[in-house]
Amino acid sequence: MGDGGKRKLRAKLLARLINGKIKLSVDYSVGEIMKDLELELGITLLYMQALKAREYVRVLVMGRPMDQYKILSWMCAVIVRGNADLRAYVELDGCRFKRMFVAYGACLNGFILGSKKMVFVDGTHLSGPYEGTLLAALALGANNHIFELAYAVEGGNK
Asked: Does 64 score more than 50 pLDDT?
């Protein structure tokens, strides 16, 4: 068995030890993993070992992030079925995310019936493995408070 095989074995073994805790708390930090294993079992880990074990368990528990895009169209359809006034659209290129738009019916009706007829659009760039832009359409309500109309996510070029 080569060194790569030992690393995989260690990550799987460590993943078994922390599996239950990650299921309880998805944001279980690498530092907490290192402290807990040292206190409970006397195992001293390097940061990278704990990080790889945590990522391995996250994939087992939640699936790969790319797989979540496969059910996005279905999720939009279910949301629209549950709220007839809602507008939700998603555009995929195969399994690759392109864009998504969501506007709740109550927000749209509130804009039509009681908001000032001026729309503000704001956006922020998303970073990390899934780059893109998050856009929000806002208005001012009758009492000058911010009133959310819709939001959209535009996929990145990766």
From this structure: yes
